[in-house]
């Protein structure tokens, strides 16, 4: 067996293409940061003055590390050489820190319930002046992920699942002024926020990812890249439509239906029922090179992809997973008619 390898953060001076000082381990403890297995640089942030680094870490060992979801956000200060636990006492996942440009605030993602990986993702803000932390998204009936500050340090841009799509939102750091910035039958994100606007990826079940820009205040998105244009011009795709299907309890289930490229409504087609997602992710307008609904439909199938009960994007009443068992409330859907 190989030795267990730890991920830590090292900092060194840099000039003219090389390191000019010995790297210093600012964690100094046998704990991973970012978190394994999926954590990346989104779990680490450096403030604009260069004197503080925030990082995500679960400072537990053995069985506790394997079973707990209690990660925290820590801030290392280079002047005092001390580390502060910003999310002390918050027992669910805390991760993905983001310093405000003016250095006064730190935002991060937080889940409240320990051991419950499908809990609602919230955004908290810590004020370094008064040492208070506040949930910015209190009352929001959706997940809020990837918090990113606007240049004025007064608003946060975040990503959220909304009715089977991934959209970008803006909210004031006071928790007021929630605004949806993007719309349509698309998935938006990841994204970057700049001085003059937002750059994001956009895709759908019929469009591979390309880069788009949009104003900070929302509005029309503008395509920046056309990487796939020539290749796509040689292909024929089928239409994808949204249907609201009644479940056995009378609730609507958003269901995507993908048709073959040359669909004939007078014919009968075999059907593929695509049940994926949940409880952490929805069946959204994703483009995948592994689970591609257009590729499935191109073999003369109609693909039916329901957002079953327990998936995010439809409010917490729709995400009916149990914190105790992790099980979703069973709910059958009636098959939609497959001809137009």
Plain-language structure description:
With 340 residues, the protein is mainly beta. It has two domains: 10-229, 6 Propeller (Neuraminidase), CATH 2.120.10; 236-340, Rossmann fold. 4% of the residues lie in helices and 35% in strands. The protein has helices at residues 62-67, 229-232, 293-297; strands at 10-11, 14-15, 18-19, 24-25, 44-46, 52-57, 72-77, 82-85, 94-99, 105-110, 122-127, 132-135, 145-149, 155-162, 165-172, 179-180, 187-193, 198-204, 207-214, 222-223, 240-246, 252-258, 271-273, 302-306. The chain has a four-stranded antiparallel sheet with strand order 5-6-7-8, with no helix packed on it. The longest helix has 6 residues, at 62-67.
Q: What would you call the shape? A: globular
Q: Please identify which CATH superfamily of the largest domain we are dealing with.
A: TolB, C-terminal domain
Number of strands: 24
Number of helices: 3
How far is the N terminus from the C terminus? 59 Å
The whole-number mean of residue pLDDT values reads 89
Order of helices and strands: EEEEEEHEEEEEEEEEEEEEEHEEEHE
**Largest beta sheet: strand ordering:** 5-6-7-8
Count of the separate structural domains: 2
User: How much of the sequence is in beta strands?
Assistant: 25-35%
Helix/sheet category: mainly beta
Q: Which value, in Å, is the CA radius of gyration?
A: 22 Å
Q: Could you estimate the helical fraction of the residues in percent?
A: under 10%
The biggest beta sheet, please?
Answer: 4 strands, antiparallel
Q: Which parts are unreliable, with pLDDT below 50 for 5 consecutive residues or more?
A: 321-340
CATH fold name of the largest domain, please?
Neuraminidase
* CATH architecture call of the largest domain: 6 Propeller
What CATH first level of the largest domain would be assigned?
Mainly Beta
